[in-house]
TrEMBL record:
Part of the signal recognition particle protein translocation system, which is composed of SRP and FtsY. InterPro entries: AAA+_ATPase, P-loop_NTPase, Signal_recog_particl_SRP54_hlx, SR_rcpt_FtsY, SRP/SRP_N, SRP54_GTPase_dom, SRP54_N_sf. Residues 291-304 form the SRP54-type proteins GTP-binding domain. This is Signal recognition particle receptor FtsY. It comes from the Bacteria. It is found in: Cell membrane; Cytoplasm. The keyword Cytoplasm applies. GO terms for cellular component: cytoplasm; plasma membrane. It is an enzyme of class 3 (hydrolase). GTP binds at residues 124-131, 206-210, 270-273. Its EC number is 3.6.5.4. Transmembrane segments: none annotated.
Length: 319
């Protein structure tokens, strides 16, 4: 199928293949047991496949959609052998993800705006890899020849400010910060003003990752956005939610909480290389209808990859 024409460069594809190795191995171990002794895809095989997909963190809602698509295919083709199941899964999941407006890019690029830099506000609970993702994204921006400014608006923890400073030093980009306990909106305001003065292309704002009180979180993020718009009218242009892929179904719950608290416009799913729960990317893409922009498939500074759904599905189902 044209879905699976190779569009990533060889090095990036090898990194993606390696990063999804645990997820793929776990999935195929379960799939092989599900079809053992069967030559034809029948109701029993589909029931077993449903269990495999759910236990691989694809999520119940998305799993039922996939099963429905495969049922329709089996009904149409009359006889489908279990040896064809992998190919069918690849095609139907790629088809399902194609209905979402995301995951088509192969190269890093950000939109340009006439009235100032592109502003990304990054949200997510502590420990999901938020600061690391910001650092790696800053590196991607620099590699693309863009001028970047970071804003340390997670003033709730001193460690968050220190960690962002380390990434700013590592990637050699300027950072705007204040003391722990400062008003996050004030930090965001100063960051955008500084970025405009420096004629920056991109601003990445870190925010606190507290979910214990959704109302407080909503109020804080709303205030940060409102204050930023005093400097750049449409800021932030992207509210990116970072999710830890290794937490599986917990990532779904975090996505649910944050999308209820603020308008999330994109997702980054991290730590996929250290887990067998890579199926969560498929489920989250489908269930929330929010574009997955980046996936983390390694610890290296260049291992934050642009999410391309076809390359992802190809790597996930590669035998």
């Amino acid at each position: 199928m044209s879905f699976f024409n190779k569009i990533f460069n060889k090095e990036k594809k090898e990194t993606l293949d390696k990063g999804l190795e645990k997820s793929k191995t776990s999935f195929f171990d379960k799939l092989n047991k599900a079809v053992a002794g069967k030559s034809k895809v029948d109701d029993d095989v589909l029931d077993n496949l449903e269990e495999v997909l759910v236990s691989s963190d694809v999520g119940v809602t998305t799993t039922l959609k996939i099963i429905k698509r495969i049922e329709a295919r089996v009904a149409k083709d009359k006889y489908v052998g279990t040896d064809e199941l992998n190919k069918i899964l690849r095609e139907e999941i790629a088809g399902l993800l194609s209905e979402i407006d995301s995951g088509n890019e192969t190269e890093f690029k950000l939109p340009k705006h006439e009235n100032g830099p592109h502003v990304i506000m990054v949200v997510g609970v502590n420990g999901v890899g938020k600061t690391t993702t910001i650092g790696k994204l800053a590196k991607q921006c620099k590699n693309a020849g863009l001028k970047v400014v970071l804003g340390a608006a997670d003033t709730f923890r001193a460690a968050a400010i220190d960690q962002l400073q380390i990434w700013a030093d590592r990637t050699d980009v300027p950072i705007v910060k204040q003391e722990m306990g400062s008003d996050p909106a004030s930090v965001a305001f100063d960051t955008l003003q500084s970025a405009v003065q420096q004629n920056a292309d991109v601003v990445i704002i870190d925010t606190a990752g507290r979910l214990h009180n959704k109302v407080n979180l909503m109020n804080e993020l709303t205030k940060v956005k409102r204050v930023m718009q005093k400097v750049i009218p449409n800021a932030p242009h992207d509210v990116m939610l970072v999710l830890d892929g290794s937490t599986g179904q917990n990532a779904f719950e975090q996505a649910k909480q944050f999308t209820a608290a603020t308008e999330v416009t994109s997702l980054a799913v991290t730590k996929l290389d250290g887990t067998a729960k890579g199926g969560v990317v498929i489920g989250i893409s489908d269930q929330f209808q929010i574009p997955v922009k980046y996936i983390g498939v390694g610890e290296g500074i260049n291992d934050l990859q642009i999410f391309n759904k076809f390359e992802f599905v190809d790597s996930f189902f590669k035998r």
